[in-house]
Amino acid sequence: MNSKENSADGPSQKRRHGYTEQEITRRLIEAIFEQRLPPGERITEAKLAEIFGVSRTVVRASMGKLSEIGVFKKTPNLGYTIAAPSRAEARMMLDVRKMIEPGMVHSIALTRSAEDLERLNHHIATEEAARNAGDRSTLVRLTGEFHLKLAEISGNVYLVHILTQLQVLTCLAILVHAESETGCPRDEHSSIVRAIAVGDGEKAAAKMAHHLSHIADELQLDRPRPEPSLESALQWLGGLGRAS
Amino acid sequence: MNSKENSADGPSQKRRHGYTEQEITRRLIEAIFEQRLPPGERITEAKLAEIFGVSRTVVRASMGKLSEIGVFKKTPNLGYTIAAPSRAEARMMLDVRKMIEPGMVHSIALTRSAEDLERLNHHIATEEAARNAGDRSTLVRLTGEFHLKLAEISGNVYLVHILTQLQVLTCLAILVHAESETGCPRDEHSSIVRAIAVGDGEKAAAKMAHHLSHIADELQLDRPRPEPSLESALQWLGGLGRAS
DNA sequence: GTTTACTTGATTGGATACAATGAAAAGGAC
DNA sequence: GTCCTTTTCATTGTATCCAATCAAGTAAAC
């Protein structure tokens, strides 16, 4: 978090405004996408306030909203951690996305403009560039943002809002549970765009449904242990205790 | 805003805490459901703080979150109003619900337990009672909560969250635009539950899709004027000016 | 050595004071 | 009277202070 152009602006020169709450929220989400804030990491109001050069009041509002949507886990009077979604939670968020996104691309396929296609193709080209360059953290961010771009193109503000939340959470789930942290698989995005381009809503929806299923597959099948829960950890410790 | 059972809970007994942020948020949403907070109403932090007997700090957090999800409209440095969704916004929120809720009931139809059906039937009976009693504000709240109950039964926390937001917004849209403010039409709810009861996911989804379309119809067809926008109003005034 | 009670430290929770903002009213010049 | 400036006022925005809470460590009792 080296965002201290702040440190150069003179010692006692009073900034009219520090970062605003929305800017802070945006930066935190960005940091998660780029894996600078790993799931499970503990984080305090005071620390963030210092980093952004504002009082706790402002970061508190931001962290409150991020907690509300499940990006931070907050335990009262204790503190915050970056969420580390369980497999069950990951499945739930992908279930919701499976309800939403196929319908969304179906709708888009029937209404898309030339400019929309331009944007989508450009985005996919950028994805490919990052993939070829081996820039993993950028790739994860971009593949996530693809889905948000679709929401924007749909023109539905509520979709943008909802999918932004779900996308951040999905990103965290992938970081926790997926083996290959490459974000969305290969070129499924481009096949979705192709279906949109020819106006085939059904096909676009089907492709999107498959795409989301593939993401879900990665989360559920990779690791052998079904759920490294606290319960099993305690059981393990108990067995150890008895053995020694 | 007559929600002062507060005045009954002991005169000078010092509450360790006043209302918590979540309680305040819940009550505000409840008040909207019951039409004690009409769309367009202006509302200030100080006023709410006084009503709930807490400082601005707490209500501010609550109002911030409500603004985030679009229930309040907030203009910086000026104030808040209860949202009065435009027809375009109403259409968008119902579009999203059409993407989500049919799939949701489809899923529920395949997994519902006897207890789930019990809860749903009980809720519908309560709805009917309110309808027969002519208790309109309770009816609006209950018909809205039916959809939330479904989300709860699905067991998906993200669905509960998302639909809670959309439901409140839909309620506001209905209050602004619908002719008959009776909430959800007749006994469409019970036909959905019947399909769920027999495990027919396809039928439940279809019924829900129709149900949501009916709500959308009410919002778009009732009033003659397509959109009483500021633009058209100015144009009208302009014409008047030239004519006089 | 184990348990209990107490202290301490770190962190959030909430209230208050003050600054910043913008709208509307008041005042003055022409 | 109209236009421009100034003042005032209501409201939000931010910082700071202190209280509340919980965990963990410490000391004392048995």
From TrEMBL, chains A, B:
Q: Which SUPFAM superfamilies is this protein grouped with? A: GntR ligand-binding domain-like, Winged helix' DNA-binding domain
**Span list, region Disordered:** 1-21
The answer, when asked if DNA-binding is one of the entry's keywords, is yes
- SMART domains cross-referenced by the UniProt entry: FCD, HTH_GNTR
PANTHER family, per the entry: HTH-TYPE TRANSCRIPTIONAL REPRESSOR NANR, TRANSCRIPTIONAL REGULATOR, GNTR FAMILY
Q: Does the keyword DNA-binding apply?
A: yes
What organism is this sequence from? Paracoccus broussonetiae
Pfam families annotated for this entry?
Answer: FCD (PF07729), GntR (PF00392)
Tell me which domain of life the UniProt entry assigns to the organism this sequence originates from.
Bacteria
Sections of the chain in a coiled coil: none
Classification via Gene3D superfamilies: GntR ligand-binding domain-like, Winged helix-like DNA-binding domain superfamily/Winged helix DNA-binding domain
Q: Where is the HTH gntR-type domain?
A: 18-85
Question: Which keywords appear in this protein's UniProt record, sorted alphabetically?
Answer: DNA-binding, Transcription, Transcription regulation
Designated name of the protein: GntR family transcriptional regulator
Q: Organism classification, top ranks?
A: Bacteria, Pseudomonadati, Pseudomonadota, Alphaproteobacteria, Rhodobacterales
